[in-house]
Structure formats: C-alpha cells, structure tokens
C-alpha cells in the first residue's frame, strides 16, 4: 500500500511539471519584476503611498539665490539677512554683561586662594550660572568645568581662567558670524558690499572707538583698498569670498577687538586707527594747495623725498588721475605698493610702471633709463655716480632671469629680490641703502655688541 502511494504521488508530480508552462523570461526581466515587487511591498510596509507623496516628506534643502532682475526677492533676502544677524548679535554678551559676569564670579569665589588666583567651587559655579542670565547658560556646564579643572586639592577652578575662556568663546563667535556675514553675500564680494561690511564692523571694534564719525568714510576707503589692491590684481571690482577668508586681512581687522592690543601691533596693522590716521595725515600734509588732490610736485615729497622724477612721471602716466592730479584712492594704491615691495601684487604695480613699452619684460634699455635718474640725483647731492654697467650686472645676478637679457615680473617674484631691485631703480635712498648694506650691517652688529656689554 505504501509503495502504491509513493508511485501515485510521483505520477502526480510528473503530470504537474509537464502541464506547467515554462517561464521563458530573461534574467533581466526577472530582476526587474523582483525589484518592482520589493519596492511595492517595502512602500506598503513603511506606510507610504505613491512616489510623489514620498517626495513631499523630504525637507527642502536648496533655495536658489534671486537673480539680479528680481528686485523684490533681492530686497527680501537683504532684510531677512539683516534680521537674522541682529537676532544672532543679541545672543552675544556685551561689555556690560561681561562685567556683570565677572562681578558674580568674584562675589562667589571660594577661599583659600591659589597663589594670587581666586577660585570657585562647582556648587558656586552653578549658582553663578543661574544668576548670570540666559546668554551665559551655555558656559555653565559640567563639561566646561571639567575642562578647566586641574590639580586643585579642593576641586575648584580658577575664576580668571574661566572668564578668559568665556571671552575667547565670545570673540570666536563674533569672528565666525562676521565671516558668515561675508559668505552670505555670495561667491564674490563687490566694492560696495565690502564697504558696507566694514562700516558695520566699526562699532564692534574697541580699538576704533576713538575715530570721529566724520572720518568713517576715509577709514572704510583705506581698509577696503588693501583688500582690493592685493586680492583683485586684474581690477575687476570684485573679490572671491574664499580669497578673503584665506588671507590674513580679515584676521588683522578682527584683531582690533582686543582692547589691550599693544602699540607695536597697532602700528604694524594697516587697519588700526593709528595706521589709518597716519596714511590720511600724510596725504593731507602732501596736499599743499589743499584742493584734496596731489600733483606730481606734491607727491615728490612722499617718504624721504628721494623718489626719482622719472618714476613719478610714470606713476602719473599709468595711474588714474583727474586733470593730472591724484585722488586719495589712487594714493592708497601707491602707498600699498611702496610699503609692501616684497609682495607679488606690489611688484606687479611697480613692474607695470618700469615696463615703459609694455613688452612684459625689462631689458637693459629700461634699466638704464630709470637708473640714469638715480645717477643724476647722486650728482645733485655731491656724490660720485656709480657705473650703470656694474649695477646692471648686479641686478641680473640677483634676479637670475630665464632669459639672460630680459627680466619678467615672474623672474622678479621668483628671485625674492624684487623689492631690492625696484628700490635701486626708483629711489635714491633705496639705492644708497643697498650700496651701503655691508656698513649698515656692521654698525648694527657693533650696536648689538655694545648693548650686550652694557647689560
């Protein structure tokens, strides 16, 4: 009976297989059906509907910038940005709130002092956090306390260290938001954008508190000019945001938030009030006829008054002037070039003036043309003129150009001697310094030795 049942089931299976229709689909079709069924059942399992409905669940992550002709959207974007920045600025601690925080910390210090430093325990730390206000809440956490906890036997932290931590965080937040303000402008910054940005910055920089409001426009012009002189070599009137953030200029500008910035740091910082007043004061002193512009005769007294007339002629031929006179913006370019002769942008400025025939290189004729003016000045001052042949050989030895007869701008930059070469050709004082470099070095060494003997 058992054998009969086995035979029966075998027959049934054979007939079923024989009667079943063969699946003639390709592998690709089978995989396509499998994918479709999987998507269908997965969507049902997730409780979703059609693909169109699923897309609605994805949050919007891209908002295009309004086009130039969409005036209303441009205005809306500017207003929204202004409101956002105002709200974020209100979240930062101002000077009065920082003073109140210091008062609370000092009031809740826990003895004994560690050396001359006042200390605070964790319980008192939390009490100050409750009284300091909502803006300070982010600083009064266990993590911050643990970060500042060192080797105090009573488990306390230094009040001064904590306050300095808060100050650094506040400054860092301000810097980040100011940089973000730049990033929101777009891919590039236009002249007007940068002027408005720096004008907004002035009230936030303690080192500029003493500036008269009447000087703001001149300060903004002075500050903006440095950005465009070095970062816009083609004079397109716009600068890439990434170039501004990559250079040190913005950091130099934000350094003016330091209320205790040293005198030396202020003098070396182009954006400081003393530096801006110095440059503008020089301009006013040169302007003898007080017409707000500089003639070539007035500009010849710049610095030590030893720039050659030939070089100044080229300045007035190539640079933007108004009826043969230079305005403050053009003067700023002139100052930036002469005060930063090691920088490629400054060398490009001076090279263009030296390249009279616009050939893209300086040959022996060009070098001789400018050095003749140096020789004439030496005669006027009763000095024996130096042979041009000797100077020419020294210049080519210093630069080592690819072409032994031509010096290109790139040759000057690559040689790292561009500042020396240009000084030799345009400034009697610069040439004298170069000629007497060994004597000057020896004198410096003698002075250093004398100072050491005195101590």
From TrEMBL:
Its main location: cytoplasm. It is found in: Cytoplasm. PROSITE patterns: EF_HAND_1. GO terms for biological process: B cell homeostasis; cortical cytoskeleton organization; microtubule cytoskeleton organization; positive regulation of B cell differentiation; regulation of dephosphorylation; T cell homeostasis. InterPro entries: EF-hand-dom_pair (IPR011992), EF_Hand_1_Ca_BS (IPR018247), PPP2R3C (IPR039865). GO terms for cellular component: centrosome; cytoplasm; spindle. This is Serine/threonine-protein phosphatase 2A regulatory subunit B'' subunit gamma. It comes from Esox lucius (Northern pike).
């Amino acid at each position: 009976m058992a054998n009969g049942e086995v035979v029966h089931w075998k027959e049934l299976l054979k007939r079923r297989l024989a009667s079943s229709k063969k699946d003639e689909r390709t592998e690709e079709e089978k995989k396509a059906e499998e994918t479709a069924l999987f998507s269908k059942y997965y969507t049902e399992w997730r409780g979703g509907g059609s693909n169109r409905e699923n897309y609605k669940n994805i949050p919007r992550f891209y908002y295009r910038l309004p086009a130039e002709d969409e005036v209303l959207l441009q205005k809306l974007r500017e207003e929204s940005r202004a409101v956002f920045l105002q709200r974020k600025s209100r979240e930062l601690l101002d000077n009065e709130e920082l003073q109140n925080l210091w008062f609370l910390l000092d009031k809740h210090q826990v003895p004994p002092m560690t050396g001359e430093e006042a200390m605070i325990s964790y319980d008192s730390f939390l009490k100050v956090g409750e009284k300091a206000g909502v803006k300070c809440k982010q600083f009064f956490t266990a993590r911050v306390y643990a970060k500042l906890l060192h080797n105090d036997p009573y488990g306390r932290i230094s009040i001064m260290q904590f306050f300095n931590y808060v100050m650094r965080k506040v400054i860092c937040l301000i810097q980040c938001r100011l940089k973000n303000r730049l990033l929101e402008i777009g891919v590039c910054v236009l002249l007007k954008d940068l002027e408005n940005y720096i004008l907004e910055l002035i009230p936030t920089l303690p080192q500029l508190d003493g500036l008269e409001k009447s000087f703001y426009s001149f300060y903004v012009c002075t500050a903006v000019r440095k950005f465009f002189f070095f970062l816009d070599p083609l004079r397109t009137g716009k600068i890439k945001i990434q170039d501004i953030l990559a250079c040190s200029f913005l950091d130099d500008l934000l350094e003016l938030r330091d209320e205790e910035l040293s005198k030396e740091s202020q003098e070396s910082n182009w954006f400081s009030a003393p530096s801006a007043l110095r440059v503008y004061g020089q301009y006013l002193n040169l302007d003898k006829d007080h017409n707000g512009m500089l003639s070539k005769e007035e500009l010849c007294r710049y610095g030590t008054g030893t720039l050659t007339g030939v070089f100044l002629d080229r300045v007035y031929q190539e640079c933007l002037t108004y009826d043969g006179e230079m305005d403050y913006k053009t003067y700023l370019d002139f100052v930036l070039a002469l005060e930063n002769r090691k920088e490629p942008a400054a060398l490009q400025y001076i090279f263009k003036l030296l390249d009279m025939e616009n050939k893209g290189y300086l040959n022996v004729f060009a070098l001789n043309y400018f050095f003749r003016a140096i020789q004439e000045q030496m005669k006027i001052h009763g000095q024996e003129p130096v042979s041009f042949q000797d100077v020419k050989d020294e210049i080519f030895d210093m630069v080592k150009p690819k072409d032994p007869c031509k010096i290109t701008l790139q040759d000057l930059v690559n040689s790292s001697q561009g500042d020396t070469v240009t000084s030799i050709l345009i400034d009697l004082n610069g040439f004298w310094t170069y000629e007497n470099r060994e004597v000057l070095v020896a004198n410096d060494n003698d002075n250093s030795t004398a100072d050491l003997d005195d101590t």
